[in-house]
Amino acid sequence: MNPKEFLKDKRALVMGLGLLGGGVATSKWLIKHGAKVTVTDSKNEVELAPSLEQFTEDEKKSLTLSLGGHREQDFKENDIIVINPAVPKESLFIAIAKKAGKSIENDASIFFRFLGERTIGVTGTRGKTTVTNWIASLLFQKYGEVRASGNTPANAFLKEFDRISKTDIPAVAELSSWQLETLPASGKAPHVAVITNLFPDHLNRYREGIEGYARAKANIFKHQAETDFLILNDGNPWTKFFLAQKPRSKVFYFSKKNLAKGKNGMFVKGGAIIFRNGGEEKKILDIKTFAEKMGEHNLENLLAATLAIILFDPKFKITKKMLDALPQIPFRQEIIFSKVGRTIVNDSAGTSPDAVIAILRRFKKNIVLITGGTDKDLEFKDLAKEIKKTLKPPELVLLNGSATKKLIFELEKIKFWGNPSARLRAGGKKIVLFETLEECVDFAFAATSRGKRTILFSPGSASFEKFKNEFDRGEKFNENINSRIKNKMK
Fold first, then answer.
1. Could you say which of 179, 214, 321, 400 is the most buried, measured as most Cβ atoms within 10 Å of its Cβ?
2. pTM attached to this predicted model
3. Domain residues for 52?
4. How is 240-302 classified by DSSP, letter by letter?
């Protein structure tokens, strides 16, 4: 069945048009493929004007607006309910639609419903964007026009669908836990599924705690067959949980250490990547200088990416030249400036405490850290310990937010600033706490004015109190830095 057959004479309700482009792209795609679309959003027509202006007059003929709040009747009368990321699993309106027997979808479930078998899907807490983009970059060398699909408006699933479905090129998809919540509705799964790792994250969304988050991630292999492949991180504690879900697919592992006997996968031995399958081992590539160039944290990302490619296409040959051309991923430990004794790293997509720990362990010395943002019900105890081990108080710059207050509480418990009764004073001698990113950068530049120093921007939390999302936050940081560079770093 193709999309036009599936959507013929169907009424689709898009829950959440929004202002970031995702709801518009979904609505346009549904209209293009024959659905009558109703858009519901808590915002009114005036607030949503920038999004509504993107529809053509012809598209508006197939579009009904139900704005300024959600109405029960819309969820009972439409055949398909397509939800956006902000919609919680426990939404009353989703419950109403399910009770009425409606199909609950998102852009990822629609994408996989029709795409066929030429797919690689990647999820995980850390590294999934890097792994997805590196797989796409490497496969481009053979197949051409391969690019990552998934989590940003520029490469949203349904924007990519029509291009991919008309060719034989592979689809490489990054899948968030939210997108995976609804993936089983498609009855499909990636031919090669990768789970990079699992750490506490998004616990504000999962009332059942980290296990609920893990169950969402496990949906990536729920509908895999025996001819499909599942790739797991041999060193991550949650790998046992995923195995307990009894995947039907063939399981392979990646590890920076030698894999135990009997396990198939990709690992490092003697400065080279080794692939083991059925007891046979094959050297894939020397990587003796890779970690030095790209960071130790990226070694696991490389193993996951190369393993996915070998399983997808056993004849694919990975070369050192391809490795040297791997892109640096925006906002993920991205070195955006390195000159005149100062290095600046943008890790805006580091939205969990574990991400900040990772970047501190990579750069280690002579650093100033800008961190803080919106809480996702995560714990900051381990990050506080890492900060105390790595930084002195003048080297920590805090952007105010609900998560920042939790971090401060943990830092005071271990007397990072000495006297735990120290008052919060912006620019004060004890706790440096600022309301704007610009103020944070000002302070960080002053703190790195002498000697060879590195500024790390790694929020370790969400962005919604001050920014649209982590990408908006990252762009704002880059704009600030670029402005300074143009002014000769003054």
1. 179
2. 0.90
3. 3-105
4. HHHHHT--SSEEEEEESSPPPTT--EEEEETTEEEEEETTEEEEEEE-TTHHHHH-THHHHHH
